[in-house]
Amino acid sequence: MDSGLSDVKFLKNGNGNGALVTMIEGGEGLFRVVAQDPESKARCGVLNLPHGPVETPVFMPVGTHGTVKAMIHEELEEIGFSLILGNTYHLYLRPGIQVLQHFKGLHSFTGWRGNILTDSGGFQVFSLTPFRKITKEGVRFRSHIDGSSHFLTPELVVEVQRVFGSDVLMPLDVCTPFGITYKEAWEAVELTTEWAARSKKAWEGTMEKSRGFLFGIVQGNFFPDLREKSAEEILQLDLPGVAIGGLSVGEPFETFLELLSHTVRFLPREKPRYLMGIGTPEFILEAVDQGIDMFDCVFPTRIARNGTAFTRTGRIALKREAFIYSEEPLEPSCACKVCQRYSRGYLRHLFKVGEIAGPVLLTYHNLYYLNQLVKEIRSAIRAGRYPTFKKEFLSRWASPLYNNQLF
Amino acid sequence: MDSGLSDVKFLKNGNGNGALVTMIEGGEGLFRVVAQDPESKARCGVLNLPHGPVETPVFMPVGTHGTVKAMIHEELEEIGFSLILGNTYHLYLRPGIQVLQHFKGLHSFTGWRGNILTDSGGFQVFSLTPFRKITKEGVRFRSHIDGSSHFLTPELVVEVQRVFGSDVLMPLDVCTPFGITYKEAWEAVELTTEWAARSKKAWEGTMEKSRGFLFGIVQGNFFPDLREKSAEEILQLDLPGVAIGGLSVGEPFETFLELLSHTVRFLPREKPRYLMGIGTPEFILEAVDQGIDMFDCVFPTRIARNGTAFTRTGRIALKREAFIYSEEPLEPSCACKVCQRYSRGYLRHLFKVGEIAGPVLLTYHNLYYLNQLVKEIRSAIRAGRYPTFKKEFLSRWASPLYNNQLF
Questions:
Q1: Three-class SS state of A5
Q2: B74 interaction partners in chain A (CB closer than 8 Å)
Q3: ipTM over 0.85
Q4: Do B346 and A70 touch (CB under 8 A)?
Q5: The model's pTM
Q6: Which residues touch A98 (CB under 8 Å, ≥6 apart)?
Q7: Taking Cα atoms as reference points, which of A271, A227, A228 lies closest to residue A247?
Q8: Residue range A205-239, pLDDT digits in tens
Q9: Is B289 helix (H, G, I), strand (E, B) or coil?
């Protein structure tokens, strides 16, 4: 796994090129910032999680059912991931709490030895279920699998993640779509704050069950003053980390950037910042620029299963005829095992004949690519040249930026 | 990869336990027998193939489209396979000859560095296509994919496998089902012999194109005298190896054993013997007992994708409720990476939620298991205790032997 602590030590001695990077010492808590870019808000840090340290900025692959789709744990370790996501909603339904209790948590059930962050299930309840009803107490919903009825409360969501033994826990929040009224957004913020307070209490009352850290989630839809209100209320709870929810849900890219930049202004420097649902190079680069430390997204693995791969200059859809005779690797400059061995022509063939190896190899490459990207981002920040790195990357990157393709 | 040549050298010095194993020296051709069990026809050998030596008895995983289903090449190498199968019928249709010509063969197209045996396509033409018509010249058929019309001749089939750069080539033969008349079976043998002679000529005329070895295929359906006739005619061609086709196609297990034993009597000791379409422990053990050196079958990988795994005592269907809480590995005595890390309960979960990792991990285990079985078979033969090994294995193995479940 890629703990990268040797890098951190090296950098404490100076970055060697005279740039005005701030190197920050020590700190015993969950998180410490180890380098701060002088021109942007970009920073490097280390998360001290129960299953080992994690360098930030970090991309976290999504393991919905306790496994990253089309990967096996061995491959994630090979790439260097030491923090993955699990979806509480899915795991709560299958295999369910009884099974996870029997196995004493997600780590021993799944065999994953690194860290696991689990979301609250809120986003899935709002996006996947055929029926839901929010009350002050919690949210009732029907399962998208068998229609069975369930009731999630902030307390239950924390309790469930304690059973999981999650290294980072997320509180139940109210997710709202782009385009709702101010009043609806205001009510959602109110309830999110109330639920966060109840979640904190439940988390503090279950410290003996696991060593995980509870983050707060800032909501507020696309209303700048509600973002400020939510940030202030959530930060008052003084949880170990803070997440930004409800962005990148279908809004124009410019709106995303404005609201992100606006929200980050209220976040304290010393806590890790997690922007939920981000996972393409252009979004990651912008988010890092705004001082974001953690991201997750199903997009890189989902497009891989459909035959689309990241390259240095953009994305390629392998099923296109143009690649039938291509002897090139997916990305000639990539050092991953897929690019060292397999041609675009062969990978295209695997997709055309429907072989599992196609999704497996493309998922491996896309995850390697993103892990490599955050590694390079960290190096650039520590070398005091993040803005240049970002500019150079985006200058060669063909992106549908103002044409949000994330959802 | 598991070339195992050190084992062979060691055994030339004697087997150390006084058993009457015959150890055979040298030989510069394709194949040499290195140990012969004293009580059965079981033997160990080495195939000297263009992409490295292969110890026999050997199980060959099937890579229909130039990839073993649910595996990547790295995993096959990890397990120790150095000889896999490709299906000429499928590869001829997709990606097609033009693509494989452009890539200069299957090895460079697929990135597989070990040996490849390709079948003739005959079996698929007879079992998969919606339409076929046999003439003396060859076989016309419609593709099961797009209905397009194709005409395979013995010469074209050799030519195609030369384009593949196959390490072992198989000639076009006439495959017949269980239950046909003597006359039909006789005609199929006649044509198979004629086609084998034409294949040999085509193979000899294309020696400059690749270094692959052409095998003959003995047919004869379930008529003992036709098996003898076919064996005599095919062996007269003096090809480097000999295969037995048309067995294990739905006949009772006893019939399979009788015909196998009968056919082997006509095969010379010095040529490698390949029994097509065999791949469960009980069939492998019986075939080795009859002096068979090579086997292939889609069964172990196909059942893996459906959630069934080999254990020491038989097969388990993981989707059964009984495994929900099982913390045991698939097979406690198995050293594979799947059994070292994952529980039956977790693997069951992966199948229940439809994750790709389920088929991937079970395929890995089943292939590891069979490779381990043939390794143990080789050790037993060299130690002069093959009949005991077979008896012990089958005494604990729950098998539906007389209830053919292979097809």
A1: helix
A2: 337
A3: yes
A4: no
A5: 0.93
A6: none
A7: A227
A8: 999 999 999 999 999 999 999 999 999 999 999 99
A9: helix
Please name the member of B74, B346, B355 whose beta carbon is closest to the beta carbon of A337.
B74
Reply yes or no on whether the pLDDT at A309 is more than 60. yes
Q: Find all residues with CB under 8 Å of A282, minimum gap 6, and list them.
A: A394, A397, A399, A401
- Token representation of residue A168: 């980072």
Asked whether the beta carbons of residue A346 and residue B110 sit closer than 8 angstroms, the reply is yes
The mean predicted confidence, pLDDT, of chain B is 92
Q: Which B residues in the span 20-79 are in contact with A, Cβ-Cβ below 8 Å?
A: 65-67, 69-74
B7 is catalytic: no
Q: How far apart are the C-alpha atoms of A386 and B2, rounded to whole Å?
A: 48
Nearest-CA distance B66 → chain A (Å): 9
Give tens-digit pLDDT for B198-211.
999 999 999 999 99
Ranges assigned E (strand) in B135-194: 139-142, 149-152, 168-169
* Known active-site residue A119: yes
- Going by C-alpha positions, the residue among B366, B386, B383 that lies closest to residue B68 is B366
Sheet holding A22-23, edge to edge: A22-23, A31-36, A43-49, A52-56
pLDDT at residue number B129: 86
A128 contact partners, CB below 8 Å, separation of at least 6? A89, A144
Looking at residue A4, its pLDDT comes to 38
Q: How far is CA B369 from the centre of its chain?
A: 15
Q: Is A406 on the interface with B (CB under 8 A)?
A: no
Alpha helices by DSSP H, listed for A224-318, are: 224-236, 253-264, 281-289, 299-305
CATH 3.20.20.105 fits B57-303+368-395, yes or no: yes
Which CATH number is A59-303 given?
Answer: 3.20.20.105
Tokens of A94: 């299958």
